[in-house]
Structure formats: structure tokens, C-alpha cells
């Protein structure tokens, strides 16, 4: 995704401001709404990315769409429009939520499995993530039958691949190169 580093910088700045104003949780809620609204609406994505539509029209439209958000969130929208970076709004919202969770000691553990996770397995994975990172986590389970079995766990920058497909690939490499 282009502009990811810029989105992280904007997210960190708005988080810092929100913490100073003691509205970080409220802004996190705003960011969830913004991310979901933009992600679910292709026309809005095209509208925000369009170089033809003037900034003041974008600003007025976004203020109308997100009329109930906190003033800190409105300030972020203004800054992005003024800096001609409004196309980063969705990415900034996503990065804010990640930064907020880190500050609060929570993370999202993305687990890819061949079949849906059971509650028992979910609790074991959460315990392992807590042991590895020291932080609480929520699980996002993705089912991908191509991994054949096992799982792939991603937490932040860490990835652990214990899939059957990976083990078969490793075995194939050993047989070919040895």
C-alpha cells in the first residue's frame, strides 16, 4: 500500500494529540467507523483518490459523512486535506487502531488455518501469544485450505509458519539440494 509510512506518521501524531486531550478511546471508535465506511464504499474510495475533485468539496463531504466524530478526528481530516493526502485517510485510520492497541497492550493475532478454530484452540493460541509478546491479543482467524493443516500465526512483525504445506516445501528443498 502506497503511503503506509506517511499513514503511520499521521496515526502516531493523532494518537499523541488524542492522548493529550484524553479522547484516545473515542478517536479509536471514530477510526473504526472511518475505516469501515471507506472500505465498504468503492465510490467513496474513488472520490477520495480523485485528483479532479477539489479539496474543499472533499472536506465538506467528509465533514457531512463523519459529522459525529471527535474534534481531534475532524482535525486529522483537515490536515490530510490541506496536505493533499486525504487518500491516506483509510490507511491512517487502520494504523491508528494498531498504534492504539499497542499503547493499550493489545494486539491482533492473525491465524490462518485449514479449518475454523475451535474455542479450545483459540484459548491456547491466545495464551501462547501472551507468553511470546507479553500483550493481550484478539484473534482474527482466516481459513485457507491450501495450507493443508497446521497454522500460520502472525502477531505484529512476527510470523510463525507451522503449516503442513510449509513442512512439505521444506522437505522438498532438502531432497532437491542434498
Could you list some keywords that capture this structure?
single chain, about 180 residues, Peroxidase, domain 1, 2 domains, four-stranded mixed β-sheet, 4 strands, about 60% helix, elongated
Mind explaining what this structure looks like?
By secondary structure, the chain is of the alpha+beta class. The chain folds into two domains: 4-102, N-terminal domain of the delta subunit of the F1F0-ATP synthase (Peroxidase, domain 1, Orthogonal Bundle), CATH 1.10.520; 106-177, no CATH class. Helix content is 61%, strand content 14%. It has helices at residues 4-20, 24-39, 42-49, 55-65, 71-82, 89-103, 119-133, 164-177, and strands spanning 106-113, 136-143, 151-155, 158-161. A four-stranded mixed β-sheet has the order 2-1-3-4, sandwiched between helices. The protein starts with a helix and ends with a helix. The model has no long low-confidence stretch (mean pLDDT 89).
Question: What is the element layout, followed by pairings?
Answer:
Elements lengths: L3 H17 L3 H16 L2 H8 L5 H11 L5 H12 L6 H15 L2 E8 L5 H15 L2 E8 L7 E5 L2 E4 L2 H14 L1
Parallel strand pairs: 1-2
Antiparallel strand pairs: 1-3, 3-4
Helix pairs in contact: 1-6, 2-6, 4-5
